[in-house]
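Human: I'm a chemist; would you kindly supply sequence and structure tokens for a protein?

Assistant:
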Amino acid sequence: MIQVFHCKVNRGGQLRADVVAMHERIAFRVDHQALNEIFCEEAKWRELGLSFELVAEVEGEDLDRAFSATNHIDSDWSTNRDVKVMTRNPRRSTSVGDLVVRDGVTYVVDKFGFSKIARPEPIEDIAAEAVVEQETGVAPRG
């Protein structure tokens, strides 16, 4: 199984120049240093309005399959076979800067393919926070 996490900027974060700049570094340049900065201070960035949200679990082990299964192609990806939707928030297609996790290894969606990245904390912590946010509507503070 592969977990898919979308990089998310909340409304308050959209107004902050530092959050917009960090999001651009991730989503447009796939800046690994920016990802490392976020991972080292996730609570800070989440409070500022930038986080990674668990949006789907996709059956199988193929990263390309997980990517295509969480893209709106002919219809909303939530209707795709072997995809379990993990969010109540509006869905978008998986794109550059988003994360996929397979067998505990985290990859970032790169301009072409995927790049393996190091995380200083287990990805399960983010998944648990996503569940709390779904159930309460409030992101946990770290």
Summary: DSSP finds six helices and six strands in the chain.
